[in-house]
Amino acid sequence: MSTATYTVSGMTCQHCVSAVTEEVSGLPGVTGVQVDLAGGGLTVTSDAPLDDDAVRAAVEEAGYEVAGR
Amino acid sequence: MSTATYTVSGMTCQHCVSAVTEEVSGLPGVTGVQVDLAGGGLTVTSDAPLDDDAVRAAVEEAGYEVAGR
């Protein structure tokens, strides 16, 4: 199992959290997604280590930006 | 035709705008809904004048507050 934490910018409300959670949850191999709205933290748990670019693309698809990892 | 403008507080993103638009659009007689995210303005067009309490309830159902009319 693998866990990675990113910082996401632009999330302002629980709808934003839902949008990010939904997109990232859809990535192959992802088994868990936790988003901390206040701090912008996104923690992704997966079977195997994920490609950061895939996570970044999913966050952008939801309408937000990965500001760091 | 009747038009009423309210001020809604708590909307922070386009998802919030969508949530308010969807709820208010569902009120009987409503023919148009316009939301201005930046200013919090909600303009509702309807066949006949609406009950303010119904609009207020729809906004609250979406998770926000009518701060004034």
- What integer is the average pLDDT of chain A? 96
Class of chain A, according to the CATH hierarchy? Alpha Beta
Radius of gyration of chain A, in Å, reads 10 Å
Oligomeric status:
homodimer
**Helix-strand topology string of chain A:** EHEEHE
Strand content of chain A: 35-45%
Stated plainly, the CATH topology of chain A is called Alpha-Beta Plaits
Number of DSSP helical runs of chain A: 2
GO molecular function (chains A, B): copper ion binding
Keywords (chains A, B): Metal-binding
Organism (chains A, B): Geodermatophilus amargosae
Protein name (chains A, B): Copper ion binding protein
Task: Please outline the helices and strands.
2 copies of one chain form a homodimer.
Chain A: E1 2-9, H1 14-25, E2 30-36, E3 41-46, H2 52-62, E4 65-68
Antiparallel strand pairs in A: 1-3, 1-4, 2-3
Summed up:
Chain A contains 2 helices and 4 strands, in the order βαββαβ.
Q: How would you sum up this structure, described in words?
A:
By secondary structure, chain A is of the alpha+beta class. Chain A has a single domain (2-68), classed as Alpha-Beta Plaits (2-Layer Sandwich), CATH 3.30.70. Chain A has helices at 14-25, 52-62, and strands at 2-9, 30-36, 41-46, 65-68. Chain A has a four-stranded antiparallel beta sheet. In chain A, strand 2 (30-36) and strand 3 (41-46) form a beta hairpin. In chain A, 29% of the residues are buried. At the A-B interface, helix 1 of A face helix 1 of B. Chains A, B: Keywords: Metal-binding.
